């Protein structure tokens, strides 16, 4: 970061996003139309292949180095009893992933996906958003920049997931700030909240909205004030993928909320992203309707860890192989 203000570089990138390769996308659709099958008989599989071609510039598309990137963060607002899980559960989940025993490990093996898990200073929770900003400007910008490094080793399909006790409440606050409404419009059971806990979650979101007020009109201010480290890192990763022509799969409510930050700054910022699945969290359905996202899967998965995105990656890989295999037959 070299600019005078921490978020200036990101604002510049969002004002100069590379477009889709519409020629590559159209090429894939033409190849499907020429194949020996009824027109559009493969439905969304054809759409996925064309989308992948458009954002990779390769027709037919390929997926050779898919990656699941999970960002883990802790939240100061968790002290208000907004989750049935202790804050230590975030670190425990990270350790389970590292040991190969988490659900995401098994889905990655099944679909031949790479996996990276990032511990975002779990020992230092963010500020309590009902009393202070979650992050200062430099800290938020630095975390976004860190998230951008997720693709540094090279990938051609990025699946983004999260870990973080209390982060469904933070996602609700961020969506309320960016998309409108109050706490009651956005909170849900998360990882098992009962009625009393749901009421506390609603109160927390409303208190955060009241505290930060008009500052939330700026999407980056909303991110740093009522977001968190995993939200900032995911936003950075989405932006880096766009600049490097890497297609993205978003997993669940948290990743969607992070994407909403970029969408608020530039409505085309998520065009290279597909939503992996619909979370049972009620705020997720509301968010994706406003963002114009359509889930690939609806399996009732609310597990986190990027599981939904990793499952959807299997579909994307199948779409790419179907496109390339049928294209070869057409050329023959």
Structure notes:
With 332 residues, the protein is an alpha/beta fold. The chain is 52% helix and 8% strand. The protein starts with 7 loop residues before the first helix and ends with a helix. It has helices at 8-15, 22-34, 44-56, 88-99, 103-111, 137-148, 167-179, 183-186, 195-212, 219-226, 229-243, 252-265, 282-291, 307-331, and strands at 66-72, 114-119, 157-163, 247-250, 273-275. The longest helix is centred in the last third of the chain and has 25 residues, at 307-331. Strands 2-1-3-4-5 form a five-stranded parallel sheet, with helices on both faces. Strand 4, helix 12 (252-265) and strand 5 (273-275) form a beta-alpha-beta unit.
CA gyration radius, whole angstroms: 19 Å
* Number of distinct helices: 14
Strand content: 5-15%
- What is the oligomeric state here? single chain
Q: What is the terminal separation in angstroms? A: 50 Å
Element-by-element helix/strand order: HHHEHHEHEHHHHHEHEHH
Main sheet attributes: strand count, strand direction, barrel closure: 5 strands, parallel
Instruction: Count all strands and give the number.
Output: 5
| Spatial sequence of strands, sheet with the most strands | 2-1-3-4-5
The helix fraction, in percent, is 40-55%
On the 0 to 100 scale, the average pLDDT is 94
Q: What structural class do the secondary elements suggest?
A: alpha/beta
Uncertain ranges: none
* Shape estimate: globular
